[in-house]
Specification:
The chain contains 10 helices and 26 strands. By secondary structure, the protein is of the alpha+beta class. The chain has 3 domains: 193 residues, no CATH class; 84 residues; 113 residues, D-amino Acid Aminotransferase, Chain A, domain 1 (2-Layer Sandwich), CATH 3.30.470. The strands form 4 sheets. Strands 4-3-8-7-1-2-6-5 form an 8-stranded mixed sheet. A 6-stranded mixed sheet has the order 12-11-10-9-13-14. A hairpin with a 5-residue loop joins strand 17 and strand 18. Helix 8 crosses helix 9. The longest helix has 25 residues. It is elongated, with a radius of gyration of 25 Å.
């Protein structure tokens, strides 16, 4: 069943055109909601299947026509799905409302509209709890030639958390609204927070089948613990527990003569390199480094190399409508010259993964087995982490190392995946993300087989259980 939302005045009323089946559905409904906002729907006298929906507060949906779906469960009819992106702030520039994320948000909103969903972006200041309305922005117009238009929207069925930075996430208003959305009945907010590397390690190391794919990691407290850790592994990475993009990372290599080679990232692409003779010099470096915050000691893995440069794997793994995790895309990240990480801001580059693996392992069967095992480990780690943290994630990115034996090592998980450069992967990622949003809203995934019950989501009549974040504090 479908409904066509027509442009209405700046009031509590919205006009819509419906087909006969939809009209009958609305007539027998005990309750009608637009997203999660209750609306009073009445037929317009003297019209051919036209209805007017009245909301508790002023509602203004920019754009001339929106084609939406209807879902019926236990006497409640829901117009939607309504999908919202949660972020921390916006700019006055109508084309760059959300800075570097503007293009990504635009594509999401446009794709959602093509599939028959209402999508918008909002910040904490736009939420009106009593009226169950949200002031935000949606994209109107064709392609990049359109613009961000402000509107007043119903409460969403699903919220995609894309607060851009850890600092923004910790602001009191952002934190309070996010927590309240997490607790809001029947609303599903996914990817609730940035991840702490130490918490992720503690969670995954409890899971049999995953722990053997984790480099040994310890919380740094003093040099007296770091030295035996270095002697055991010979190569050690020091990472901020809440760091990203390789910032504040150091690597220590134990040399044959007992000295230590120290390399640490600096702003830009600079590397601070020193040869340390003993414990006192190491203590001096660690005092300076640990001022930034909590640090981890991680076993260094000898990475595969492409043209003499180490590379690891960045993978995007997403949840299907049926709740299963699947790898959407993988790419190799090759370290820049003299760098200790593979991040692109530090001179790293991307490459197709399969040809590199085939070049290293030569035997096609061996290369195929390595890639198959890599996918298996990525999916298993995502499933385990999501399960142990209450099922509140819809997508994750993962940094994985492969050693000379083809053994995968999960280095990091990220709950705010970056966009892949490869257009095919990017398009598939956007579609899978929206399929997941449809299903979690209780709507059938567009284009799915009508006989497939897994494509219908959990159902509006039986909302999913609230996640348990006791092992993963918010």
């Amino acid at each position: 069943m479908n409904i066509e939302l027509l442009t209405g005045p700046r009031s509590r009323r919205l006009h819509a055109a419906v087909d006969r089946e939809t009209l009958e559905c609305l007539r027998r409904a005990r309750q009608v909601r637009f997203g999660l906002t209750p609306v009073d729907v009445r037929e317009l006298p003297g019209t051919q299947r036209r209805v007017v929906a009245t909301a508790p507060g002023p509602m203004r949906i920019p754009g001339k026509r929106w084609r939406l779906h209807l879902a019926e469960a236990d006497g409640t009819v829901t117009l939607g799905p309504v999908i919202a992106i949660f972020t921390s702030s916006y700019r006055r520039d109508p084309r760059r409302r959300f800075a570097s994320l503007s293009g990504r948000f635009r594509r999401f909103v446009q794709h959602a509209r093509e599939l028959g969903a209402l999508a918008y972006v909002f910040t904490p200041r736009g939420v009106h709890w009593r009226q169950k309305m949200i002031t935000g922005f949606t994209w109107v117009g064709s392609g990049k030639r359109g613009r961000w238009a402000r509107g007043s929207f119903p409460f969403p069925n699903v919220v995609y958390n894309r607060v851009p930075t850890r600092k923004a996430e910790q602001r009191p208003r952002v934190s309070a609204v996010r927590q309240r959305l997490l607790e809001y009945p029947e609303l599903h907010l996914f990817n609730p927070k940035f991840l702490d590397k130490w918490q992720v390690y503690q969670i995954l190391r409890r899971v049999e089948g995953v722990r053997e794919h984790l480099p040994e990691t310890r919380l740094y407290t003093r040099v007296a613990d770091l030295l035996p850790f270095l002697q055991r592994h010979e190569h050690v990475y020091l990472k901020m527990a809440s760091g990203s993009l390789g910032r504040g990372t150091a690597r220590i290599d134990l040399l044959n003569d007992g000295k230590m080679r120290w390399r640490a990232t600096r702003p830009g692409r600079q590397i601070a390199a020193r040869l340390l003779s003993g414990r006192k010099e190491l203590e001096a470096q660690m005092r300076r480094l640990s001022r930034r915050g909590k640090y981890l000691m991680q076993q260094g893995i000898s990475l595969l190399k492409a043209n003499g440069r180490p590379f690891d794997v960045r993978a995007l793994v997403q949840k299907e409508p049926n709740g299963r995790w699947t790898v959407t895309g993988m790419a190799a990240r090759i370290a820049g010259p003299r760098q200790i990480t593979t991040h692109r801001p530090r001179g790293g580059s991307r490459a197709q993964l399969s040809p590199l693996i085939q070049t290293v392992f030569r035997n096609p069967q061996s290369a195929s087995r390595v890639e198959e095992e890599l996918r298996r480990v990525i999916v298993q780690a995502a499933e385990a982490f999501d399960r142990e943290t209450g099922g509140g994630h819809g997508e994750l990115s993962m940094d994985v190392a492969i050693d000379g034996n083809g053994h995968p090592w999960v280095l990091e998980l990220n709950a705010k995946p970056a966009v892949f450069d490869e257009p095919a992967i990017r398009r598939q990622a956007e579609r899978r993300l929206l399929n997941y949003c449809f299903a979690r809203s209780g709507f059938r995934v567009p284009g799915a087989d009508a006989a497939d019950p897994s494509a219908a989501g959990p159902g509006l009549g039986t909302p999913p259980a609230a996640p348990d974040f006791s092992a993963y504090p918010l």
